[in-house]
Specification:
InterPro entries: COS_domain, E3_ligase_FN3/SPRY, Trim54_Bbox2_Zfn, TRIM54_RING-HC, Znf-RING_euk, Znf_B-box, Znf_RING, Znf_RING/FYVE/PHD. By secondary structure, the chain is of the alpha+beta class. Helix content is about 50%, strand content about 15%. The longest helix has about 110 residues.
Length: about 375
């Protein structure tokens, strides 16, 4: 079904005024432009109110100028040429007014001898039947048509209804659909805000728990370092004691060896004495020293295995296994949701703490405090 937009001609109106009036019709409301008229980047004009309606329909989440939040602008398509119009944070109010069109409208209203065509006088005319208005709606073909098409034309066997009734019904349905979409968009925007807040909470909780974990391991490192120093001191102490004892024996046996060497030299000199009387007199003293030296030559020795330090050995296998098994440990509430984490207080008592945060966003409190005790 083909139809075209037309106007019922009024007596006394010239073709020039008709043509001018058609150029001053808004493609949205189909009425004469109302102030202020805005000019789009594609050079087409719209009533500011109509432009704002199209913009709001295309950007339902866009905040109005009265909102306290800062908008990031939006976009919509020109209804005349489908050119995409990108707006800044001021929205439609950031578009430039077309003062020329406004002035032309003022002049037209002053010069016109008849009232501007009201919207009710605009008629869609059937292209198949001249002078027939589009006044019914074919329910079978789902298209507007005229009475002649129903009686004699392509829709004579179809079910039809008054165009106005279908118009009101579908307009109501469309309005309800828009309201439903806007409400759904509001819910989605609220959900996005909640999820963004949850992301921030997760990042903060993760940072806090990482710091807590690092503090716990640093404390373990400090304990291990302190204990290592104590055990190293024990080994060094016994090492020094044994070295001192062995070195004292070395000095004592060294002194004894030095005296024995000198005595051997004296005995050799006595052996070379040719005079028997002199030999007997000199060897008597030497023999006495040899006898005394032999009696004092009992060599003190260290016990077998005295040099061993193998008793300074520790078994860290159990401790290593325990360290490897360190993991997070948490208590669970009746619903199976992780609610609290155990920790060891300074006085040795166990305690629990709840996460402070946006519990209403997740309905699951996060862990705070110690992640576990091992």
């Amino acid at each position: 079904m083909n139809f075209a937009l037309g106007f019922k001609p009024l007596l006394g109106e010239t073709n020039t005024m008709d043509s001018l009036e058609k150029q001053l019709i808004c493609p949205i409301c189909l009425e004469m432009f109302t102030k202020p008229v805005v000019i789009l980047p594609c050079q087409h004009n719209l009533c500011r109110k109509c432009a704002n309606d199209v913009f709001q329909a295309s950007n339902p989440l866009w905040q109005s100028r009265g909102s306290t939040s800062v908008s990031t602008g939006g976009r919509f398509r020109c209804p005349s040429c489908r050119h995409e119009v990108v707006l800044d944070r001021h929205g439609v109010y950031g578009l430039q007014r077309n003062l020329l069109v406004e002035n032309i409208i003022d002049i037209y209203k002053q010069e016109s001898t008849r009232p501007i065509h009201p919207k009710s006088e605009q008629q869609l005319m059937c292209e198949e039947h001249d002078e027939e208005k589009i006044n019914i709606y074919c329910l079978t073909c789902e298209t507007p048509t005229c009475s002649m098409c129903k009686v004699f034309g392509a829709h004579k066997d179809c079910e039809v209804a008054p165009l106005q009734n279908i118009y009101k019904r579908q307009k109501t349905e469309l309005s309800d659909g828009i309201a439903m979409l806007v409400a759904g968009n509001d819910r989605i925007q609220a959900l996005i805000s909640q999820l963004e807040e949850i992301c921030r909470t997760i990042e903060e909780n993760g940072r806090r728990q990482k710091q807590h974990l690092c503090d716990k391991f640093d404390a373990l490192y400090a304990i291990l370092e302190e204990r290592k120093k104590e055990l190293v001191v024990s080994i060094s102490r016994e090492q020094d004691e044994k070295l001192g004892h062995v070195r004292s024996l070395i000095r004592r046996h060294g002194d004894h060896l030095e005296g024995a060497v000198k005595l051997v030299e004296a005995a050799i000199q006595s052996m070379e004495e040719p005079q028997m009387a002199v030999f007997l007199q000199s060897t008597k003293e030497v023999l006495k020293k040899i006898t005394d030296t032999a009696k004092a030559s009992s060599i003190e020795r260290t016990e077998p295995g005295y040099e061993s330090m193998s008793h300074f050995i520790i078994n860290t296998d159990d401790v290593a296994d325990m360290l490897r098994s360190i993991d997070f440990q948490a208590a669970f509430n009746s619903t199976g949701v992780c609610a609290v984490a155990g920790y060891q207080g300074e006085d040795g008592d166990e305690g629990y703490t709840l996460e402070e945060g946006n519990e209403d966003l997740t309905s699951q409190p996060s862990l705070e405090g110690e992640s576990g005790r091992h």
